[in-house]
């Protein structure tokens, strides 16, 4: 049976602490989701959030290839005519082909949170779905707290589902709203109930027990044909079920038709791009799409995976658009170093003095806080320097940075640099938003005249990681810079107790690496 | 049936990209694991890592309350007498009561990675276990790649387990080494095989399919009585099964005896402390123990959870030593603000001009990149200022910071400050590791004389988050500072395009908050 993917990154995902999508963000994300091949995009709750009304207006003007837009709402409020409920009216006014409405299935929630009677709640479900079906909508019924409700009062939870089915809902989506259910419970419950319904069943899981992906997979295994989740598992508390894991599990492990091979290959990129829009770092350790998901560190694993990738990889990274990496680290020893050197086109022999010195320097720098996993271009420069294959393109004589703030005025920064290039002395001043930006500006005033290829290079990412953070403002910091030109992306790194010095080191490496690229 | 918890944070966890434990780190972590109540602590691989030999030497001198220390190794190498294998000799020399050894169960791995015959591999398992049992060890057999092996060649995978049982292994631990197995597969396989063995079965899962916790829970449900995992799910690639989720699931959801109620209450603290030692931020969204695991943001959830916590919480946060939080954010609206003001002992009415101005300012600051979730003390100061309940303890007239670097010398930093306190003018100079440390030092030279209570206050954490990182070195940064005195911990935040200015704002709030505490 094919499975329909229902993405709620823009609605439930936006509830995550630390996420705040602008309207432009939401439009960008909707386009990415459409490319990825999800079947439904839940865009927001027009009745509760004015920003969402604007989203539905704008998204109507955009031609999506594949996905249907869905607007979300609750059932009508208690003791009210459905036509008079503003929230449901706003839902209809969103003019989407599909709507999702959540209704209560847990008796305790009806009486405690909603403060109404069990029978009124059933009528609320029926009335709301009738109202929406009469207006030609495809209706997805989100059975809120279904599993907790079923455990507490089996009969009532089923009555709520039957009310929705009777009123014409197109999907009955079983929600594990509190995220407390385990895979075997979901398995038992779905197997117990599934024969009582003709309407397709769906699953909506939260990750409070760290089981949302597993619960979703189990639900499909038991016959659910509609899966709700978010990109990168974004969502309130511990997040929603992560579509970036569910999609490859369905497609590669359960053999379920949901996206095309080509769409699956875009998964890593979509995950990273949406993380960027959300302004959150993608976890390196995220299954399938994380930078470390197919990274090999331990010596035994590396030697085995070099012989045959299947030995330590559960799926081929290329299928989800990710890649295998061999990491640089003190645990990895000389064999990884040799693999890297070969990749740089350098000759390095296993027991040579250069290899030994490099391993020693590497360990010493790592003990000071360096992590070449975040700055491989810095690592390549280190290897080249050691092998006598690199001469610096400029040398620092002196820099001086003055930061000043008067009263409530914004602070100002000026950097003065003195450098030597090809035996000649140069100096320049630069202003900037902060000290590192000022330094970069000053440096470029000199260098771009001498090395015009630097004008095509941009700094595309800048990260500061506090290493021994319990030392407060005296903490050591690691700065990682990502740079790009029209063809390549590279990462450099610097460590110091002074954020400016750490940034300087990473900045110099970034520029030197670009200059070296022209010489290779 | 009680379940034995086997922690491998120090061995398999240390394989994680970004982790590098020192010997002192490992000793500290072992003590914390003992407090938490795990039954086994796998300390390392003495045959492969010299640092681990030192760990086993030192840990012997420490009296643990509860946990047994375990050393890890492979079975003997092919075509070798077991007594001559240096790796196994090093294992015995670690002098632990318990040892774990891994042996291959997947025919493909035996012939491809190990390059030996299927029968020699069975003899390697038998010989190694005999050798260890003859030396009085409790032996845990890690059946590497068991599930993949069983799927590929059922007969051979079972022969490997039987070889281990026959040689006297105390536990047969079924490993999902590549992390590719789903809960229903593990369920089917364990149910198929369990009656063929008298030896207790264990589970060791990896998180490559985001299902490691679920797989571990399912294995216990099917009869496994030994569970391996790591704190915070640390481990290679996507990590190992996370004991911080498995322990509460076993205890609170499956009713399995594993740790005491008191030990369970220490879970959040142990998770955070070990994250600190690993020098990695604990994920706020980590189930059970994360800062956001019981945080409520959406308006509906907040009002329901205030009425009855059971409505949106799957377990009580106190049971795992965590706490419920209501977060400050633009999605939350006025009702959360009122809850907070009340907690500060301030009177704020729902429709008052002060409440409206506050909401407006809050939204404006959030749009500039402020996140009061990371700096609630800054938020409290904001509320107090708006209500006229706060007068600054000092005012900046001017600061100036000079950072200088000459050639290869380390950089130097001096900060000059001019401030006004109680109508009088003061100035001071401070040196520091970096600009912010210098500023802090200068400020304290003046302020500690006037407000001696500041001497009891320390900055305990300092974080820099780049907001629009694609702007490179001109990126906006958010600085969050954690401070503490003998009684309390508080968090402040500042945002600017200049890292120094952002730090200054957070630093001033941190000092002001401490001074205000004395006045409340």
Describe this structure in words.
2 copies of one chain form a homodimer. Chain A has 520 residues and is α/β, with parallel strands linked by helices. In chain A, 39% of the residues lie in helices and 20% in strands. Chain A is built from 18 helices and 16 strands. Chain A has helices at 23-36, 50-59, 86-93, 107-112, 118-134, 146-152, 154-166, 183-193, 212-221, 243-253, 261-265, 267-278, 299-307, 333-343, 353-367, 376-386, 435-450, 499-517; strands at residues 4-7, 40-44, 68-74, 98-104, 138-144, 171-176, 201-205, 226-229, 295-296, 325-326, 395-406, 412-421, 424-431, 458-466, 477-484, 489-496. In chain A, the strands form 4 sheets. An 8-stranded parallel β-barrel of chain A has the order 1-2-3-4-5-6-7-8, surrounded by 8 helices. In chain A, helix 13 links the parallel strand 9 and strand 10 (325-326). In chain A, helix 1 crosses helix 2 and helix 1 (23-36) runs antiparallel to helix 12 (267-278). The longest helix of chain A is centred in the last third of the chain and has 19 residues, at 499-517. Chain A is elongated and about 85 Å long. The relative contact order of chain A is 0.07. The mean pLDDT of chain A is 91.
């Amino acid at each position: 049976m094919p499975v329909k993917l229902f993405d709620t990154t823009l609605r439930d995902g936006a509830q995550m602490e630390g996420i705040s999508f602008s309207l432009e963000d939401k439009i960008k994300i909707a386009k990415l989701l459409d490319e990825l091949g999800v079947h439904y995009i839940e865009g927001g709750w027009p009745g509760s959030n004015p920003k969402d009304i604007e989203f539905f207006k704008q998204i109507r003007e955009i031609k999506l290839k594949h996905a249907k837009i869905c607007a979300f709402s609750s059932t009508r409020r208690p003791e009210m005519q459905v036509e008079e409920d503003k929230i449901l009216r706003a839902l209809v006014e969103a003019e989407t082909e599909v709507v999702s409405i959540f209704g209560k299935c847990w008796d305790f929630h009806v009486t405690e949170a909603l403060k109404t009677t069990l029978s009124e709640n059933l009528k609320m479900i029926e009335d709301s779905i009738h109202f929406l079906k009469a207006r030609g909508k495809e209706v997805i019924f989100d059975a809120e707290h279904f599993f907790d409700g079923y455990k507490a009062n089996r009969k009532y939870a089923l009555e709520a589902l039957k009310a929705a089915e009777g009123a014409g809902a197109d999907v009955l989506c079983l929600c594990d709203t509190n995220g407390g259910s385990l895979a075997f419970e979901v398995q038992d419950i779905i197997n117990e109930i599934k024969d009582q319904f003709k309407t397709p069943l769906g699953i909506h899981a939260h990750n409070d027990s760290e089981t949302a992906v597993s619960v979703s997979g189990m639900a499909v295994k038991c016959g659910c044909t509609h899966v709700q989740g978010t990109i990168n598992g974004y969502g309130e508390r511990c997040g929603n079920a992560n579509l970036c894991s569910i999609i490859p599990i369905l497609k590669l492990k359960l053999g379920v038709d949901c996206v095309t091979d080509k769409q699956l290959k875009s998964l890593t990129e979509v995950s990273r791009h949406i993380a960027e829009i959300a302004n959150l770092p993608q976890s390196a350790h995220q299954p399938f799409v994380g930078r470390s998901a197919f990274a090999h560190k331990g010596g035994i694993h590396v030697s085995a995976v070099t012989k045959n990738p299947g030995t330590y990889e559960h799926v081929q990274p290329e299928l989800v658009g990710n890649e295998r990496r061999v990491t640089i680290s003190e645990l990895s020893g000389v064999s990884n170093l040799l693999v890297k050197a070969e990749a740089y086109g350098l000759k390095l022999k296993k027991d040579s003095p250069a290899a030994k010195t490099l391993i020693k320097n590497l360990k010493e720098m790592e003990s000071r806080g360096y992590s070449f996993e975040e700055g491989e271009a810095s690592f390549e420069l280190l290897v080249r320097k050691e092998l006598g294959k690199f001469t610096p393109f400029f040398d620092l004589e002196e820099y001086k940075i003055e930061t000043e703030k008067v009263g409530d005025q914004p602070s100002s920064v000026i950097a003065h640099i003195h450098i030597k290039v090809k035996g000649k002395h140069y100096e320049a001043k630069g202003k900037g938003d902060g000290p590192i930006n000022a330094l970069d500006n000053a440096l470029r005033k000199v260098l771009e005249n001498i090395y015009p290829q630097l004008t095509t290079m941009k700094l595309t990412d800048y990260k500061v990681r506090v290493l021994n953070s319990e030392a407060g403002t005296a903490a050591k910091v690691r700065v990682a810079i990502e740079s790009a030109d029209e063809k390549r992306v590279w990462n450099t790194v610097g460590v110091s107790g002074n954020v400016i010095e750490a940034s300087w080191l990473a900045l110099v490496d970034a520029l030197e690496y670009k200059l070296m690229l022209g010489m290779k």
